[in-house]
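Review form for a predicted model. The reviewer records the input and the model, then writes brief findings.
Reviewer: anonymous (R2)
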Amino acid sequence: MFSIVIPLFNNAQTIERALKSVFNQTFKKFEIIIVDDGSTDSGIEIINKFINYDQLKIIKQKKQGASIARNNGIKISKYEYIAFLDADDEWESKYLENVHQAIKLNPNCGMVCCARYYKDNITKSTELLIAEKYKGKILEINYFENPHIFSHTSSTVVEKNVFNKVGGFNKEQVTQEDLTLFALVALTKATIYCGLPLSYYYGNVEGQATSRVKGNYGRYIDACTRFNLTYKLWNLRGRDNKIFKIFLKYELRHYIIHALRLNDFNLIKVILENIDGDILNLFPFFEIKFYRMPSLKIWNKFYILTTKFFWRMRGFPRVKK
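Model under review:
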C-alpha cells in the first residue's frame, strides 16, 4: 500500500537507523525506494546489508538534489500512497499502521500528516511538535491553520495521484520544496491530521539541505517561490479555501518582521521583489509601502505583532513545547 521514498546523499552515518525503523514497522505492506543522489561516502555499502529484502529497491542518479531524487523514486513506485522518509530521520514502529488507519477512516484524503519529535543533533535535546487541540485525534483539518505544525517530510504521506496532479516536488527550490508540495496537495484534496507523535526529525545534521543553501537570501527566495506557486493554484481553484489567504498574509508578515529584527532592509527588498504582485495586492497599499521605509521600523513591527495577535485569537493551533 505504501511506497516509501528515501533520497540518499552522503548519509552513511544515519541511513541504517532510518532503514531499521522501516523494517520494524508493524504494518508490512510497503516497498522502499532509495534514490542515491550521487553519494560519495559508504552509504550504499551500508544499504547492501539489507539487499536481500524483496521490498527494497535502489536507483542511482547523478547529483541533482532531493526534489529530483524523490520525483524519480515516485516514478517507479507501485503503490497508491507515497510515504516520505529522509535518510537522517526515523519512524516509530506503528507509524504506517496509524497512517493506514487514518486512510481507512478517510479514503478520499490526499494527504496524512502526523505529529513528530524534533531531535537536535548538537544539543541532544528532544522537542514534541504537535497541534495540541488535535492531540490523540485522527481527523480532517484545514491544513492552512498552521502548515509548519502539521507537516514535515518524514511525517507526511501523500496520495500518488494527487502528487502527480500538482506536479511533484519543484526542482528549482533548494529548501521549502516539501512545504510547497504539501500546500499544493492541501489545496487540491482533503488533509488528515494524526495527533500522535510517530516520527523523529533530526536537526543540525551534517549535510542537510538547509545547510547547503547558496547565498544569504536563498531560503527567502525559495519561500517566495512557495508563496507564488500556492497562490496561483488557490486563485485557479476559485479562492475557496479562506484560511489560505489568512495564513499567506500571516507568514509573509512573519518574514518581514524577521527582516526588521535583523535591521536588514535589503532582505525586505528581496522579499517584496520576488513576491507576485497579485499577492501584494492582498495587503493594504500603505502596508507594503511602509515596509520599505526604515524610519517606520518600530511602527511596522507593532503593526505586524498586532496582526499576529489576531491570528492567534482565531484559535489556530500552536505547537506544544
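Findings: The chain is about 40% helix and 20% strand.
Further findings: The longest strand covers residues 190-203.
Recommendation: see findings above.
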